[in-house]
């Protein structure tokens, strides 16, 4: 998953289409970069206002997906969108949308009301911006006038389901719901929001993991020295034959218990370190892959602009050649020298009357 830049966001919004995959893919990318929620929503509104009328619905579908699927990650997007949705709905209403577009947006408002995504007064504001009336539309599912229902066995409050084992392995419970895409009613299966495998880490996250590993178990010289200085008797069964009395046996037992505690604690730390290093290896691999992709993009861009620069230089050269072939007006003879000045309009007027 690529790093966040405003330019990259604008391009992704430009490439956005009305397919479910396109909307969900971009939604996931935005949620992953939710710390940039403010600039994301501002850019979203700006690009929606520039978009052709036919594409504005897709922008609202994207906002709906982001708002609902980011709730468990944090309230940032819901709050940020809340302040711009009136402008967004007004912009759609003023773009002479088709009736089916209005119907689709009314469905979204009905869903938000049904699920409590926004308070009823806010929904009324959005409805007024879109329809000119505060009436909150009801959600029509498969031709029947009723609230949208999810087909999950659990309540709406459970956004993330616990994995369950089956013969095929572990799978996550999903919920299905009826939505409208491009004027057609479809049933979409939506898994709980998650960060997909292979996402490149943010640089600060990668740095943190690396710094944490500087204090890892394998770097703990003090504990390693304690383990190295353990008495040989605690790990040799032959030492039992040398025990002569109960006091010596109790002392050996205490030493063994201490050694077991030290080794158990250290082995647990080593296991955690091993997991952390595996995680770091994966993060580095994904980060490197992303940097290679960005490098390729930069190389392609460099070639593109080098070609553009060459063409501009060719134009510059032709302009200079053309300028050199044009006559120098300042070097031409003065053809007006010695001639009487032309009469003024007043002189002509007076001469006409005489």
Automatic annotation (TrEMBL):
Source organism superkingdom: Eukaryota
InterPro entries recorded: CID_dom, ENTH_VHS, RPRD1A/B_C
One Pfam family from the record: CID
Signal peptide: none
An MF annotation (GO) of this entry: RNA polymerase II complex binding
Coiled-coil residue windows: 277-325
Bias (Basic and acidic residues): 170-179
Stretches assigned to the CID domain: 1-134
Coiled coil keyword on record: yes
CDD domains per record: CID_RPRD1
Gene Ontology annotations of biological process type: mRNA 3'-end processing
Region (Disordered): 137-179
Name of the protein this chain belongs to: CID domain-containing protein
The species this protein was found in: Anopheles christyi
């Amino acid at each position: 998953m690529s790093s966040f830049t405003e330019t990259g966001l604008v391009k992704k919004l430009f490439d956005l289409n009305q397919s479910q995959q396109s909307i969900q893919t971009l939604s996931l990318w935005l949620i992953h970069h939710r710390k940039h929620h403010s600039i994301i929503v501002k850019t979203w509104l700006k690009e929606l206002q520039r978009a052709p009328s036919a594409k504005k619905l897709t922008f609202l579908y994207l906002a709906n997906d982001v708002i609902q699927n980011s709730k468990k990650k944090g309230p940032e997007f819901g709050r940020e969108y809340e302040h711009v949705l009136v402008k967004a709905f007004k912009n759609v209403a003023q773009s002479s949308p088709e009736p089916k577009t209005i119907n689709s947006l009314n469905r979204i408002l009905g869903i938000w009301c049904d699920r409590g995504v926004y308070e009823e007064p806010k929904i009324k504001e959005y409805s007024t911006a879109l329809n000119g009336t505060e009436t909150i539309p009801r959600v029509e599912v498969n031709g029947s006038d009723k609230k949208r229902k999810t087909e999950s066995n659990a309540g709406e409050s459970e956004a993330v389901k616990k994995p369950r084992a089956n013969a095929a392995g572990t799978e996550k419970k999903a919920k299905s719901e009826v939505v409208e895409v491009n004027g057609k009613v479809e049933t979409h299966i939506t898994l709980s929001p998650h960060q997909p495998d292979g996402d490149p880490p943010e640089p600060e996250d990668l740095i943190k993991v690396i710094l944490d590993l500087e204090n890892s178990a394998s770097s703990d010289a003090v504990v390693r020295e304690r383990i190295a200085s353990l008495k040989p008797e605690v790990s040799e069964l032959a030492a039992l034959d040398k025990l002569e009395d109960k006091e010596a046996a109790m002392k050996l037992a205490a030493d063994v218990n201490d050694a077991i505690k030290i080794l158990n604690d250290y082995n647990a730390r080593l296991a955690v370190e091993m997991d952390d290093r595996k995680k770091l290896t994966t993060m580095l691999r994904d980060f490197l892959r992303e940097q290679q992709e960005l490098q390729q993009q930069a190389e392609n861009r460099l070639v593109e602009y080098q070609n553009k620069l060459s063409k501009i230089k060719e134009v510059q050269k032709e302009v200079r050649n053309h300028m050199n072939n044009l006559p120098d007006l300042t070097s031409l003879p003065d053809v007006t020298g010695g001639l009487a000045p032309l009469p003024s309009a007043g002189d002509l007027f007076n001469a006409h009357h005489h």
